[in-house]
Amino acid sequence: IASFSSGGVAFDGRVKPDLVAPGVGLATAAAGGQGYATVTGSSAAAAVVAGAAALVAEARPTLTARELKSALVGSGGRLLRAGLALPVTAQGGGLVDPIHAATAEIAVQPATLAFGRAEDADWSTTTTITVRNVSSRPLTMSFGLVPEASGTELAFSADPAGLTLEPGEAKDVAVGVSANGAEPPAGAGGL
């Protein structure tokens, strides 16, 4: 992750960025068509993501724009440093991976969730996601929470806790998170 990359939690509690892409020293055509140059910046990374999205859209022309975003965010490769995953607030869904996105079997709306700030030990919230089978085969799945840090005192619920979807079928799932009776750590933000 470059030093100029944005990251953290947006005002609405969502993690930013949704995913990351190479953005340092990218080869490109020089201005005026005279040879090649390199570019660095978040705009260069955005162009890489746009290119990945175009490739996935070409491979999966039936995906809607929201399903395409879900496939890209949900298939990102987790970035590691010293063998440990970088925080979600630095990499979102991970490194853009158009090959895995082109073979995604589910699309979730919204592609990312924000549950807000845990204010006290009794804090809890629920939101609804829509899960769609975008594959050509029936899929059975279940839902769970994978805490980013040890010692995270959260309880997770999903209703239903699992489901089976036929190709093209979509169902809503109520996702709940609570502080599980523990005081939130100082500076706790969105989940």
Description:
- The protein is of the alpha+beta class and 191 residues long.
- It contains four helices and twelve strands.
- The chain has a four-stranded antiparallel sheet with strand order 7-8-12-10. A two-stranded antiparallel ribbon has the order 1-2. The protein has a two-stranded antiparallel ribbon with strand order 3-4.
- The chain is globular and about 60 Å long.
- Mean pLDDT is 87; it is low at 183-191.
Descriptive terms for the model:
single chain; about 190 residues; alpha+beta; 12 strands; globular; disordered C terminus
Briefly, what is this?
By secondary structure, the chain is of the alpha+beta class.
Query: For the report, how would you describe the main beta sheet?
Result: 4 strands, antiparallel
Report the strand count.
Answer: 12
Strand content: 25-35%
Distance between the termini: 21 Å
Oligomer: single chain
CA radius of gyration is 19 Å
Structural class: alpha+beta
Order of helices and strands: EEEEHHEEHHEEEEEE
